[in-house]
């Protein structure tokens, strides 16, 4: 037999799920920017560039990719 949950409990669970979803997206955003920046820094160091060209480019690519991921996630609701 299926037990029905009261509406306030169901509302709390939905609220916690959305907190977890968006905090996970924030962590992914930071991790993507950090990883792309680190890879770009490694490439710049390997090529002996004076300015962090690849670090900036890959950092912006990671940021843009994660913004697209967040956009898709928000539209899926």
Automatic annotation (TrEMBL):
Database matches in Pfam families: ATPase_gene1 (PF09527)
Keyword Membrane: yes
TM spans (from-to): 20-43, 49-71
UniProt keyword terms in alphabetical order: Membrane, Transmembrane, Transmembrane helix
Protein name: AtpZ/AtpI family protein
């Amino acid at each position: 037999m299926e037990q029905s949950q009261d509406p306030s409990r169901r509302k709390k669970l939905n609220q916690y799920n959305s907190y977890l979803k968006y905090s996970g997206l924030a962590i992914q955003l930071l991790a993507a920017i950090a990883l792309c920046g680190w890879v770009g820094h490694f490439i710049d160091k390997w090529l002996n560039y004076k300015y962090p060209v690849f670090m900036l480019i890959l950092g912006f690519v990671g940021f843009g990719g994660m913004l697209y991921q967040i956009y898709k996630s928000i539209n899926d609701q």
